[in-house]
Amino acid sequence: MSAVGTRTLRIGTRGSELATTQAGTVRDALISAGHDAELVIIKTKGDQSMESVEKIGVGVFTAELREALADGRVDVAVHSYKDLPTAPDERFTIAAIPPREDPRDALVARDGLVLGELPAGSKVGTSAPRRTSQLRALGLGLDIRPLRGNLQRRLGKVESGELDAVVLARAGLARIGRLDLITESIEPVQMLPAPAQGALAVECLSANTALVAILSELDDPNSRAAVTAERALLAELEAGCTAPIGAIAEVVESLDDDGRIFDELSVRGCAAAIDGSDVIRTGAVGSPENAEELGRSVARELLELGARELMNVTEAGDADV
């Protein structure tokens, strides 16, 4: 029985294998805590269109889930956090950010190749401007090809030989149990991930305080601090999920002058020209309690270094998956 009544908690999710697997972890955690829960599939515009996200709009994977929350069809929505618009919606609360998966990008390439082994001219699939710009900036002479569709469809492009490689979020492959396909986990020094990549947002109505309290038990403080900083960076840059912006924040242990261990939040961010001609990077370290301001300060430094001009160098792209 649910602690918010006798009704089973209805968890809204997209219908893809990855989305239902992600939402299933939340369902299972709630059941383990003594709350009946089930998944409810909600179709979204992003699932029904093969157009790029830049053409059909930010929030295409989340808007319908939020409307299902608002009209009472579901009690909880589980999102890939990076898909949510940065503008706040007071109707809803992100009640929990569960422990985050590894946020790095991953290469899945033919013949077990890593990035540095791909011959010049190799066809690499990813339409995300963030990935496209940083791949081009590596100067490897890769032929970046548009890529759209669910995870299995993207992976199939390599299996069929249509592409030599694809770049995907490592977290997605981890969640569907296919880490064995990865030929290289791409370190942030080469490619910074999307803000909030690998993190889930567990959302409910702000007014439902009893449910907020239940869901908050699933929250991981370090994941929340990191994601808060990364999303604040994105918001300060007034950029959406399709912008050529990368960010990663991590809670790390440091030593004070007396040898005592304390936690710090390291934040790194980048802005890139889509043609790969330039990438601006900067970072900062501060208290996890000041995560939002720390992220915004990194964004302001990026702007001072010319990020706005770089972001205006654009071409058609797609959301990070």
From TrEMBL:
Catalysed conversion reaction: 4 porphobilinogen + H2O = hydroxymethylbilane + 4 NH4(+)
| Modified sites of kind S-(dipyrrolylmethanemethyl)cysteine | C241
Q: How is the cofactor bound?
A: Binds 1 dipyrromethane group covalently.
User: Which cellular component terms (GO) are annotated to the entry?
Assistant: cytoplasm
Domain Porphobilinogen deaminase N-terminal residues, every copy: 9-210
Which molecular-function annotation in GO is an example for this chain?
hydroxymethylbilane synthase activity
CC cofactor: dipyrromethane
Q: Which domain of life is it from?
A: Bacteria
Carries keyword Ribonucleoprotein? no
Q: Which residues cross the membrane?
A: none
Q: Could you tell me which InterPro entries the record lists for this protein?
A: HemC, Porphobilin_deaminase_cofac_BS, Porphobilin_deaminase_N, Porphobilinogen_deaminase_C, Porphobilinogen_deaminase_C_sf
Q: What is this protein called?
A: Porphobilinogen deaminase
Q: Which organism is it from?
A: Rhodococcus wratislaviensis NBRC 100605
What gene, per UniProt, encodes this protein?
hemC
